[in-house]
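Moderator note: this is an archived Q&A kept for reference. The question asked for a predicted structure of one protein chain; the sequence and the answer are reproduced below.
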Amino acid sequence: MEWTIGWWQISVQRVYPSNAQLSQTYNQAASWWHQHLQILGYSYAYRELWRSLKTANILPHNPDKLSICDCGIGTAAFSLAFAQIINPKAHITGVDISSEMLNKAHQKLSQANVNHQICQSDLNALPFADHSFDAVICAHTIEHLPNPEQGLREIVRVLLPGAPLILVVTQSGLLGWLIQSHWGNRCFNQEELSKLIHEVGLTQLQFVPFTLGLARFTSIACIGFKR
């Protein structure tokens, strides 16, 4: 935004946290984050989302060898819901910039006997080969990136052709803006997210509503497939 006042031009530009700042913020939150999600109903909402996708029968079927990457795994709430509802035999590769979040994710996935590995990495430079995963899941992560399109293109790169991305983002609106004011993330409306998804080469986009809990008012979920 820019304003001209007399002989002065004043501009205001959004500043996003650096990787180091983001890592520090979520390292500090890691000890209470999982319980926080449960209290606010997100863990339950994630399970209901996976039930909706399972009922729609649009997820890949390969029960013995399914390889999933969770980008921005946090404390693994989204992965745990996936394993519980969709496929307990899947191998989860969890990626996060926060080492403490990864430690909690490893602990939670181990307790649930979910086959997994964890990797500390920036989402913009995933340390995996092209076409590595049967699906990527990503909840409340790309809104922290200065350039979400770049991060999504990196996600698309590691997907197998025809494989899905299941994406959850913070929704524009009063609650979304309150979240934004605290965590420094951006928010998306459905039109913005749809445009972004198509720009990075995903097709067959479908939005899946959250029907219960706080997530109904704060989050958008969608699924798209790599060409």
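Archived answer notes: Residues 90 and 100 are 23 Å apart (CA to CA).
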